[in-house]
Amino acid sequence: MPASASSLEVHRLGAGRMLAFGLAVLAGVALVDAAVRGSAGGSSRLTAALVALAVLGASYLLGIRPAVTELPEVVVVRNPLRTWTIPWTSVIEVDRVDVVRVHVDGRSVRCYALPRRGRAPGRRFATLMQGVPGVLPSRNPLDVEKSAGDVAETQDVVERLRTLTASLGTTSVGTTAPVVGHWAPDSLLALASVVVGSVAALTLVLA
Asked: Where would a tag sit more exposed on the chain, N or C end, judged by fewer CB atoms within 10 A?
């Protein structure tokens, strides 16, 4: 049965998004404080404001912007720097590695907003060393349960996207819109704030 518009979802980061919002709020407060005080704080306050600008941009790029939006004819993947618009009819497969991937003709689009699977190399090494006498304590059973839950959540999203591809890809036959990927203006602006803020702050510190 085709999915109704009301049943379509927007997938975003969970804890990472909340952390990004928290950092963005703190950075915004720092910028407002610097603007109110003006030159009274000297170079140290200017440096703090530039760092806050960089943190604000990075928080938006890495935590707030990423999203996967299900629409009746397309799925829109918003990654930190690029946005992809993919017709359901163009989706060949959906799978997961370190992130969920949507495979289309000739490429795979990585979805940074969707839950990750597995652990980073450093965490994998730590897991291997856990329980070795004198190195690391044994892994907490609650951590094992949480990791299993993360993998299950990721698989649920994969299965959902596969189901939507099967239903909406059939009902939208005749849609000739191509897969479109473009650099997002808001991302480039945020990236510029990260680069400018970081470089300028570093220049002041080293001056």
From this structure: N
